[in-house]
Predict the 3D structure of the following.
Amino acid sequence: MGAMFHFIFLLIKIAILSSVYALILLIVFSQIKKSKPESWFQKVTADKKGFWLSSWAIIYIMLFFYMFTYWGNHGFGDSAKIPIGNGYLVKNINWTEYAFVENVKTADGKILGMTKFLVLNDKLLGNLNDNFSFYENRFFLLDMNTGELQEFKTKQAFETHNKKNGLPNAIHLKSFNGNYHDYWGGWRFVLLP
């Protein structure tokens, strides 16, 4: 049910964004038309209402398809996703404190689960914690360029490694909600579906 309401909300948001973007496009093309009266812009914007409607439809379709791409899909309803680069997604279900990266396995063969993490310079740092799994190690560092996963038994080992490599310590790790709002908030929330 939550997914359906979220999907309907996104369809309405895309309609509003398309209206605004089509209007901006009409204004820009009209200004260009004034400086070059016998140009292609003159022909295209001769019927302003038709141009706006055509632009709206094209932009709507583009935003709709963008919503399902790797960079545009932030989940529906009870699921949420953050694209962190190189094809990796941090996922969350039911907005719990637990997040996971499906296509990465820990040393003990479990899905990479965490409650706090940070993405920095193509690296994912975090704690190993999941509601359903008990991990052999406590912290990890995933290099998203190489796919190499380093695990650390203690917080001290994690922070020693990070200090040596110019990375932040464990206190800078954020919850899934904090990372989600940092990524999907701001200009992405306003300008994209």
In short: The chain has two domains: 2-66, 79-184.
